[in-house]
Amino acid sequence: MNENKGIVYHEISSRREEKSELWQWTAAEMTREIKARTVSSREVVQSSLDRIAEVNPKLNALVEVYGEEALKAADRADQAVFTGEELGPLHGVPMSIKINSDEKGKATSNGVVAFQNNIAAEDGPQVANLRKAGAIFVGRNNSPAFSYRWFTNNDLHGRTLNPWDQSRTPGGSSGGAAVAVASGMMPIAAGNDIGGSIRHPAYACGVMGIRPTAGRIPSWYGPVDQDQPLSVQTMLTQGPLARTVEDLRLALQAMSPFDPRDPIHASVPLVGEPLQRPIRVGLLKDVNVAKPVDAVNKALDDAAAKLSDAGYIVEEVELPLFEEAYRLWYLLCMEEFRQIMPMVDEIGDDGMKSAAKHYYAVAEEWWGSRPGLTEYMNGYARRGTLISQLQQFLVKYPLLLLPVSAEQAFIQDADIMSVESMRRVMAAQWSMMAIPVLGFPALSVPTSVENGLPVGVQLLGRRFREDTLFDAAEILEAHSTIKTPIDPTW
What we know:
Elements: E1 3-4, E2 7-8, H1 14-18, H2 27-35, H3 41-59, E3 62-65, H4 67-82, E4 94-98, H5 125-132, E5 136-141, E6 153-154, E7 158-159, H6 175-182, E8 188-193, H7 199-205, E9 208-211, H8 230-235, E10 237-242, H9 245-255, E11 280-283, H10 294-309, E12 313-316, H11 321-337, H12 341-347, H13 350-367, H14 373-396, E13 399-402, H15 419-428, H16 430-438, E14 442-450, E15 453-461, H17 466-479
Parallel strand pairs: 4-5, 4-8, 11-12, 11-13
Antiparallel strand pairs: 1-2, 3-5, 6-7, 8-10, 9-10, 9-14, 13-15, 14-15
Helix pairs in contact: 3-4, 6-7, 9-17, 11-13, 11-14, 11-16, 13-15
């Protein structure tokens, strides 16, 4: 038997016998057994910290680890179980927070040297919700400077490596989160997504990541009187990365409660009315931007077959509005970002500056060198039309099956090698930008390993119907040949 501060736990459960290490468990397994008092949160958190000590020096997924602080929080979680307090959906589960998100007492560095002492006075809304849900924070996960690239590297904390292949990006900007989950440092990590920053790292590392509907999870950055750009208010979403659909469901539940700081939050039930059956799925492979490579095409075809076998009707469709939305992102978001470019030029790292230069060079081909207020206003007007068009399409096809990226994980720094290499990367990532413009929920689902790298697909659904994405993803999850957590391959 195990004793911890006077709390006596039962003999190890059969679940624990099946998996030799606690860090291999899912969050659902962890919190279920913690609440049942067959294992303590301290044991679970210590196992997570031990795994971090083993693999993080190779991967650099976490840039700060707070062991004693996490263990004290775990002891409080165990005491709450013992005294019969009300317990949240992630009670006692270890997880990490992204370095661009406010966590009280920690530096919101965003990977920028000049921000390394930017200590948050309060938790951001999504962090506060996770803490209330019982999660135990064990560290901060890495991102590129200003969370700006699909490659997780910065001058303050260094480069995060993909556990499948260190020569390939782990994705960005929530690359540290994806690597931490894929390598077993924790079952769930928090990220955010305005241009693929949850979905692409999940894809590159072979885990799951959901970008919820804009307004589902409350969000805010910094003091409450600090104005947020319109694109951040309407396109940025917070969200979890995990290894299982069940854990994503738990994390979404934990992160979603109302917070008055968010100007667009909507308290919508997590489960909606059943969809009319048979459920139609639109298979969208190519929107005339970048043809999927063979591995991606195979993943899409295999996923379509699995959904068909489960009773869904899958039909290939064309939706040119995605091409338009993809390019529109580079007007609406990048022109707002231009306002802080003087600061980037002053304190940004070389990778960040090169990426920005290349982004603007490609976007100039569509929008000109300096789009004006009229173009910007017309862009937002067009956005509403595209959203309406997609909503009408989703009446017949409640789900879309489409690529996360047209390519597998890129070679490190492919975005800053040249303008031409950036053009190829941007094109491959068309869905990363189009979906935030449109504001619908989307889920990255791993399916198989091809060429030694993970590959997967993306599911998109109606607004606030993340539950329908999870239902379809569970079918694909049952057939996935990707097995995580994994050890670094070098």
